[in-house]
């Protein structure tokens, strides 16, 4: 399979890097327009914004990100929150700094571990192990060689968010596409194959609420400003 063939395969449902390749960076950051960061009204439930971090070089070129990969390009502040939970990754913390003066790092929000493929481009992995990459593109939830599978990500985010009382929930969570899918899987109950078909673009958001159970309020919003 050629690199161009890989790009074609990535558009199939279940291909993780559908979030990354040919992604056009937002022209400007957007403001939240759906009441986030406000106290919940009586009976409305506690709202939580799941925000994907900003775009990175590996998202643009196609690859498995390194943990120290920064946000690409300059950014400016947008909507502010009092309570933000963030992945330990540099790109997530760079993004969270635009939302909150003191975001709280949560280990459970770290990106899925790509094992031996961490920091490598898709083209590089394809040249070295084309069959393994093809298998991963078809079933990314099974994970990469010596990496983490989707079930393990679900287990750790469920242990974190499931253990929080309403008053302890963050107003916003800044993390990675696969982690956002995992949160949707454990809160809303979306099965693994359908949740893999959700495209989580840089700086896109999902809004959840919790009141006698979790509900999906909005998906696919962007930030402008």
From TrEMBL:
Domain of life assignment: Bacteria
UniProt cross-references to InterPro entries, sorted A to Z: His_Pase_superF_clade-1, His_PPase_superfam
One Pfam family from the record: His_Phos_1
Family annotation (Gene3D superfamilies): Phosphoglycerate mutase-like
Record's protein name: Histidine phosphatase family protein
Originating species: Sphingomonas ginsenosidivorax
